[in-house]
Design brief:
The N terminus is likely disordered. The chain contains five helices and seven strands. 28% of the residues lie in helices and 22% in strands. Helix 1 crosses helix 5. The termini are far apart.
Length: 208
């Protein structure tokens, strides 16, 4: 039987995730040597507006287009933002969280190495199914122990033995919503949770 988190728990989790993203954005900004005013100017907003993102007071920071816009101003990427912001409370994953914030149940647990640590692996892109996010020849580093955020790349291994490279676009209790396919990122689709043997998040990529 699947238990759903209460509305208050979902809100608390989302706020914790948003705060973690905001803190990560602040670390990236400081690493770039920019003030909030300077960073804001690069994207056409005030320093105060930028500060609202860093303080976790603007939920728009969950949006992939906003992440791309803000991190680009810092000479970084959304992937770098995700690496800076581990999912809040990542050891607890209640089912039924809202889109883009859902977490794996038992079917998604990664294989463990002999040392007990989840191992990352590389994935060689051989198609244009997620173009222009990644094209053939790119090598991706994937982490089976991390749940993707919306707009982040992921590698899905199905119970039927297929392997898909897609961009994560959210989830509900029964489905993962994805972007990518024969039509590139213009194509939207989904896969039933029950059909997923393992889900791994792209944490880095190397261009050829």
């Amino acid at each position: 039987m699947r238990l759903s988190a209460s509305t208050d728990e979902v809100k608390a989790r989302m706020q914790a995730e948003l705060a973690a993203l905001g803190e990560a954005l602040g670390r990236l900004r400081r690493a770039s040597g920019l003030s909030q005013a300077e960073a804001g100017e690069r994207v056409g907003m005030t320093g105060q507006g930028w500060g609202l993102y860093e303080s976790g007071k603007r939920a728009g920071l969950f949006r992939p287009d906003i992440q791309t816009r803000l991190t680009a101003a810092l000479g970084a990427t959304p992937e770098a933002l995700s690496l800076e912001a581990p999912a809040a409370g990542s050891d607890v994953h209640p089912a039924g969280r809202s889109e883009g914030m859902s977490a794996p149940d038992r079917a998604y647990r990664a294989e463990m190495s002999p040392s007990g640590q989840e191992e990352t692996f590389t994935f060689h892109v051989q198609t244009e199914e997620v173009w222009p996010w990644a094209s053939s020849g790119v090598v991706l580093v994937c982490d089976p122990g991390r749940w993707p955020r919306r707009g982040q790349g992921c590698v899905i291994e199905t119970v039927g033995g297929e392997t898909w490279l897609r961009l994560f676009d959210g989830a509900d209790s029964d489905w993962l919503h994805l972007r990518g396919g024969a039509g590139g990122l213009d194509e939207q689709g989904r896969i039933a949770r029950a059909e997923v043997a393992r889900l791994s998040t792209v944490t880095a990529r190397h261009e050829p």
